[in-house]
């Protein structure tokens, strides 16, 4: 049995972000918490999320359960129950979700844990930035072009170029470490995780020359990682 009330909005937000990438994915309920790896159908990006059991008022999971859930339907159920405290139970290949005066049962497939390891990504330019600032600029630039160049040296900057428009912004970011490098990334995929700004005040952005972009967010209950493949120049 799992119960959540105080952190319910964050719990719902996590699945909103996942649902922006894929319609269906494995959700692993383990004795220590919940683990999710969601991959976009294009294989261009993925999200890895770990939710600590301490996020919940009650978390009693005796053994690991791997449930392949329809995230689109799960989000519709959570939208119906978002003002309530929730109780979740895994019973007879169904995830039972109970609110104050409503209840739903979402069927799932039983699968084995994903054996694939996390991609080994080298980042040579690493920055800390206010989440809302970063995604505001991403959303603004997405109106002018489909991809951007991220450049790190003394400053972190974002560049966009289309047939009629060229744009550049120097971001208010704190450098952790950086060599002079840049790479190109698809703004559409970056925009998909915009709601993650509601979970983390600051996030860490890392990349390297022609290497994937890695965006990490952490708080006392959630570890979040987004990995996006670079575009060929």
Detailed description of the structure:
The protein is about 20% helix and about 45% strand. The radius of gyration is 19 Å and the shape is elongated. Strand 17 and strand 18 form a beta hairpin. It is built from four helices and 19 strands. It folds into two domains: about 1-110, Proliferating Cell Nuclear Antigen (Box); about 125-230, DNA Polymerase III, subunit A, domain 2 (DNA Polymerase III, Chain A, domain 2, Roll), CATH 3.10.150. The model has no long low-confidence stretch (mean pLDDT about 95). By secondary structure, it is an alpha+beta fold. The chain has helices spanning about 10-20, 70-80, 130-140, 185-190, and strands spanning about 1-5, 25-30, 35-40, 45-50, 60, 65-70, 85-90, 95-100, 105, 110, 125-130, 145-150, 155-160, 165-170, 175-180, 180-185, 200-205, 215-220, 220-230. The strands form three sheets. It has a ten-stranded antiparallel β-sheet. Strands 5-1-7-8-9 form a five-stranded antiparallel β-sheet, with helices on one face. It has a four-stranded antiparallel β-sheet with strand order 14-13-12-16. Helix 1 (about 10-20) runs antiparallel to helix 2.
């Amino acid at each position: 049995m799992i119960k959540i009330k105080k952190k319910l909005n964050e719990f719902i937000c996590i699945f909103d972000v996942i649902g922006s990438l894929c319609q269906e994915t494995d959700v692993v309920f383990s004795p220590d918490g919940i683990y999710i790896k969601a991959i976009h159908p294009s294989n261009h990006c993925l999200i890895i999320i770990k939710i600590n059991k301490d996020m919940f008022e009650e978390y009693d999971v005796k053994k690991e359960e791997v449930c392949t859930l329809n995230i689109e339907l799960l989000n519709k159920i959570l939208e119906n129950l978002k003002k309530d405290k929730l109780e979740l139970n895994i019973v007879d290949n169904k995830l039972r979700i109970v609110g104050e005066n409503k209840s739903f049962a979402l069927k799932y497939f039983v699968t084995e844990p994903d054996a694939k390891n996390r991609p080994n990504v080298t980042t040579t330019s690493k920055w800390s930035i206010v989440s809302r600032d970063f995604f505001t600029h991403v959303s603004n630039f997405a109106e002018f072009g489909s991809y951007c160049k991220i450049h790190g040296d003394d400053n972190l900057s974002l560049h966009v170029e289309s047939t009629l428009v060229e744009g550049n912004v120097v971001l208010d970011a704190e450098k952790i470490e950086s060599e002079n490098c840049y790479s190109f990334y698809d703004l559409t995929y970056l925009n998909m995780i915009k709601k993650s700004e509601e979970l983390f005040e600051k996030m860490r952005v890392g990349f390297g020359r022609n290497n994937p972009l890695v965006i990490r967010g952490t708080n006392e209950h959630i570890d979040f990682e987004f990995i996006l493949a670079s575009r060929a120049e």
